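1st attempt posting a full record on here, be nice pls
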Amino acid sequence: MLHVVYRFASEGTVRAWEDSTARAQWDVQAAAFARQTGRRSVRGSKVWFDSQTATPKNPTPPAKWKLWLVNISAVFPLVLLFNLIILPYLGGLNQLVRTFLLCLCVTALVTWILMQRLQRFLKKWLYPSLQAFRGRVTTCSS
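the predicted structure (as tokens):
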């Protein structure tokens, strides 16, 4: 893991660098071999010696109602589509087998496809505590 630390004398120079064409060109070049995972802004040199500030805490799990909402938003459409599209063709099968196939298909799709995408799409809502660490990594010398 590689960390890039930018150090600027003032907030104005930070903004000038971030809005510059040179930085945009570096971002394009770096996209081939790197990806941004987070940003954080700090002031002063104390942060280099303060272990609590330098390392983020483990994120707290989302509230149960948020997890329920994400799960139902993944499961309900799949069950509905399966019932409308697939089950009419399986009408001759035993109800136990049909239910097993429904559970098998829906669980597989939710586990390996939908849930990953939903969590990525909703991560700011699910993990708001992590958003505090997404600012610029800058230190302003006094």
